[in-house]
Amino acid sequence: MSQVRSAFNKAASQYDEHAFLQKEIAIRLDAKLDVISGASDVILDLGAGTGLLSKKLTKRFADSQLICLDFAQASLKNNPSKNKLCANAYQLPLADNSVDIVISNLMMQWCPDLNQLFSECHRVLKNDGLILFSTFGPDTLKELKKSWSVVDEGTHVNTFTDMHDIGDQMLQNGFQSPVMEMETLTLTYQTVTDLLRDLKVIGAQTVNARSKSLMGKEKFQLMIKMYESYRTDEKLPATYEVIYGHAWSRPSASFKGQKIPTMGNIELNNNQ
């Protein structure tokens, strides 16, 4: 986790400039709140980072208390929100039954212990409190994974949890009738190097991957050659499996089992 924190701290100053996909998913996640009615006094933006989602939540819940929590201090420093906490999601510095909504945009994939994460979220949520999140699924960066698999058997791309396993973890920690949904977003690039640069500049590079200098230029070039086989219409695709999930902490007559609609699959061009 310290490596992940370090990566995001280093990327904080230029994160917003390059987080094209993260901004798009923040918009989509915020839109899902349109179907939810009722008063919400306290909202927790979990993994708030530089505030891509926080800014939208501030406008949506103008009369509520928004708490922005992240473990990367430099990222949080760039978040314009008033109430900020630098803390670990596994040990939330919040009282039991104190939060109406926990919302998290693309943070969960950095938490290998989902059991502890959901346990903490359930603890701080009030009765009928809502958890709503986005994360990445196993097909994320599948082109990059397959291209590296030709080179060797090492792990060069982060692994992501299947949405059914996420739903099971929620049930095990007391959440009611979790609803899991998925959509595919595709970014396109001119070169593989552009993709790798994008991942690095926002702190999302694989922290366990070996550097190009250690693996050798020949292996790196072989990976690039394999990736080129995916080129279509002079563009290289980078697929992201985006998972959305929501559930209530305890049974609710008004919300139980309600499905928040997705917005469909699209292709996004991230060429500079």
Could you explain how this protein is built, in words?
By secondary structure, this protein is of the alpha/beta class. It has a single domain, classed as 3-Layer(aba) Sandwich (Rossmann fold), CATH 3.40.50. Helix content is 35%, strand content 24%. The protein has an eight-stranded mixed sheet, with helices on both faces. Helix 6 packs across helix 8 and helix 7 packs across helix 11. It is globular and about 55 Å long. 37% of the residues are buried.
Show the helix and strand layout.
Blueprint: H1 2-11, H2 15-18, H3 20-31, E1 42-46, H4 54-60, E2 65-70, H5 73-77, E3 83-86, E4 99-105, H6 114-124, E5 125-136, H7 142-151, H8 163-172, E6 176-189, H9 192-201, H10 212-215, H11 217-227, E7 236-248, E8 266-269
Parallel strand pairs: 1-2, 1-4, 2-3, 4-5, 6-8
Antiparallel strand pairs: 5-7, 6-7
Helix pairs in contact: 6-8, 7-11
